[in-house]
Design a protein that fits this description.
The protein has one helix and five strands; from the N terminus they run βββαββ. With 68 residues, the protein is mainly β.
Length: 68
């Protein structure tokens, strides 16, 4: 499972951007966040995730926290 760092997180829309270890920006939407079962993210937090679909329409799924 790839890992990355939360770069942007909007508490109102529950969406944001993850910067993966290859320095690619990957957006996640409210559905991805909701399915994670988490209540919030912090900028700089490490996460694991899965990618669904093919580029350029890949979606971030299965978000889990690696570090607090």
């Amino acid at each position: 499972m790839p890992q990355g760092t939360v770069k942007v997180y909007n508490t109102q829309s529950r969406s944001g951007i993850i910067l993966d270890d290859a320095r690619n920006e990957l957006a996640f939407d409210a559905q991805s966040f909701r399915e994670s079962g988490l209540r919030e993210f912090r900028i700089g937090q490490r996460v694991k995730f899965a990618l669904e679909g093919e580029p350029p329409r890949q979606k971030v799924r299965q978000l889990t926290i690696v570090s607090f």
